[in-house]
Write a structure and sequence with these properties.
Blueprint lengths: L16 E6 L5 H11 L7 E7 L4 E7 L2 H4 L2 H6 L4 E7 L14 E5 L2 E11 L2 H8 L9 H13 L9 H9 L5 E8 L4 E5 L8 E5 L2 E5 L3 H5 L3 E5 L5 E5 L2 E5 L9 E2 L1 H6 L5 E2 L2 E2 H15 L6 E4 L5 H11 L7 E3 L12 H11 E3 L1 H4 L3 E6 L6 H12 L4 E6 L21 H4 L2 H8 L3 E4 L2 H7 L7 E2 L1 H4 L1 E2 L14 E4 L4 E4 L8
Parallel strand pairs: 14-23, 17-20, 20-21, 21-22, 24-25
Antiparallel strand pairs: 1-4, 1-10, 2-3, 2-4, 5-6, 6-7, 7-8, 8-12, 9-10, 9-11, 12-13, 15-16, 18-19, 25-26
Helix pairs in contact: 4-5, 5-6, 9-10
Length: 495
């Protein structure tokens, strides 16, 4: 599975990152820049910031990393008291400037900007409601902005509270995964969908408030963590403080479990738990579930490090680094051919032969999607003299595509959906392989009863997927009437 720039996808690709701040007297554009920098891991395709000075809303956005899209000159010109920011990885919509965020609308004497993390599944119905023709919708986020604009144009919109009012009318019509930050001239608003697939938190400044996808973004701007915004909650911030509103009926928390496994930074707090500690527990559970005789435990850097530490601690096998990561290659390496993509793996990771030669290795990683990068890593380790390679994955096999905000491709592109465990072992060239069991993964988060979406691992999709989106997969939908499951569609997959 390849991204548009030719980079091989061997991991689930992140949802986007959103940030918002209301802080009179502070450089809110610079604060947004720092907040987005802390969220850069969630998206690297484009970055944008919108600022309100109380009279107008200005939006600046560009393709590339946050550091490429902004400089001191641009930020200095963005004066105001309220700002929102976005860093994007595309799931719905093309990778282009037109699809970059925040999105802006001007409705009469009203202006607002919106930034979205996630993916909607009922865009066809919503586009019909909005009267947007096929081909004119840049992304689902653009569509939501249009729906809000339509409501704001209504004569019913209450003066001074137009944007919160419009959101309360639009939000219940959305289906899928979403967290929003929205602003007008006077309000900063954070919204988390009723399932809470994607995280959002609230922070306190001495002179204002911050909303962000992850808690480390609060630390970056000197804000104190207040709490996670609840699934189904809308937090409205103005110059008098903040208030909580509930635009959704019966929220049902289903945080994406991969926020714990891979997406979130290790220093993030989710469900009141530290992500790094949870990942170490995943490694400990994996060592208990799938022990092996070996000489050392090594991670696939960077994301496999906490689980490898936990595996080593629980197993008593020494922990050592076996691979060095080139920190400067990032995700922009363009590989136009399969041969070049293989070389690209070596550019990103290089073996420490002294540590692995003649050794029986336990190689720990957090997930595998397509498997081609993992296969190249195994070959690299064996070429460097490893006696044995035992692969341990700190999440279950990834068998189902995500429709709520991760980009994983179709089921035909998912290795574990098409191969048996024996075939996976043979394809990767490892001496043994084990994936962490789902129950153990959920327990390792430290919040097993809090509610998780595990659709990519077990096919249980909490929000119904339209047939137009799921033509290549078997979808098991929840039947709310009796608590059971019904099969929705089966179209097979390519071998």
């Amino acid at each position: 599975m390849l991204a548009e720039n030719g980079v091989e996808v061997n991991k689930p690709r992140e949802a986007c990152g959103v940030f918002g701040v209301l802080a009179p007297g502070s450089p809110v554009a610079h604060m947004s820049y720092l907040g987005l920098y802390a969220l850069q891991h969630r998206g690297q395709e484009s970055a944008g910031i919108a600022v309100s000075d109380g009279h107008s809303v200005t939006v600046v956005k560009d393709m590339g990393l946050v550091s490429s899209a902004f400089d001191d000159r641009i930020l200095a010109a963005l004066e105001g008291e309220i700002a929102i920011g976005h860093t994007r990885y595309s799931t719905t919509g093309s990778s282009s400037w037109r699809a970059s965020q925040p999105f802006y609308r001007d409705v009469g004497n009203l202006e607002f900007a919106l930034a979205h993390n996630g993916n909607l599944v009922n865009t066809e119905d919503l586009a019909n409601e909005a009267g947007m023709l096929e081909g004119t919708v840049t992304s689902d986020s653009d569509l939501v902005a249009e729906l809000i604009a339509i409501e704001l144009a209504s004569a019913e919109a209450p003066e001074g509270n137009e944007l919160p009012w419009a959101l309360e009318r639009v939000l219940p019509r959305l289906r899928g995964g979403f967290s929003f930050v929205v602003m007008d001239r006077d309000h900063l608003i954070g919204v988390r969908g009723p399932e809470g697939f994607w995280p959002l938190c609230l922070g306190r400044l001495d002179n204002g408030w911050v909303v962000a996808s992850e808690s480390p973004a609060l630390d970056t701007v000197g804000a104190h963590f207040v709490r996670e915004i609840d699934p189904g909650e809308m937090v409205v911030v103005d110059h008098s403080g903040w208030r909580s509103q509930q635009p959704f009926e019966n929220p049902d928390p289903k945080l994406c479990v991969f926020e714990f496994v891979y997406f979130s930074r290790p220093d993030t707090v989710l469900y009141g738990r530290n992500v790094h500690s949870s990942r170490q527990r995943m490694g400990e559970e994996l060592a208990d579930q799938a022990p092996v005789r070996a000489d050392l435990v090594m991670p696939v850097p960077e994301s496999g490090i906490p689980a490898a530490q936990g595996f080593a601690r629980a197993s008593g096998i020494p922990y050592r680094d076996g691979l060095v990561k080139n920190r400067y290659i990032g995700r922009t390496f363009i590989a136009p051919s399969q041969e070049m993509r293989a070389l690209g793996v070596k550019m990103k990771l290089n073996p420490i032969r002294h540590n692995i030669e003649g050794q029986r290795l336990v190689v720990v990683d957090d997930s595998v999607v397509r498997g081609t990068t993992t296969r190249a890593i195994v070959q690299m380790l064996k070429s460097s003299g490893a006696a044995e390679v035992h692969l341990r994955i700190s999440s279950p096999p990834y068998r189902w595509p995500c429709f709520y905000g991760m980009d994983t491709g179709t089921k035909s592109e998912l290795m574990a959906a098409n191969l048996t465990m024996e075939e996976i072992q043979e394809y990767l060239g490892v001496n043994s392989i084990a994936y962490l069991e789902l129950d153990r993964l959920v327990d390792a988060t430290g919040a097993p009863g809090a509610g998780f979406c595990t659709a990519c691992l077990d096919g249980d999709y909490p929000v119904e997927i339209p047939v137009s989106l799921n033509s290549e997969v078997v979808i098991t939908q929840k039947d709310e009437r009796d608590g059971g499951f019904v099969s929705a569609v089966q179209m097979g997959f390519q071998e």
